[in-house]
Amino acid sequence: KRLAYKSVGNKRKAQSYKMLINNTYGAMGDKFNKLYDLKMRNSIVATGQVLLVELMEMLADDCRILFSNTDGILIEYDDFDVIDEICAEWEDLYGIKLDFKEIDRVILKDVNNYILIGDEVHRVGAYTKELRKFDNDLPILNKAVVEYLINGTKPEETIFSSNDLMDFQKVVKLPTGSIGARYGYEEYSERVYRVFASDSLQHNELKAVRANGLVSIAGIPELVFIDNSDVRGKQIPEHLDYTWYIAQAWERIEEFKAKGVDFVKPEDITDDMLPF
Question: Structure pTM?
Answer without folding.
Answer: 0.74
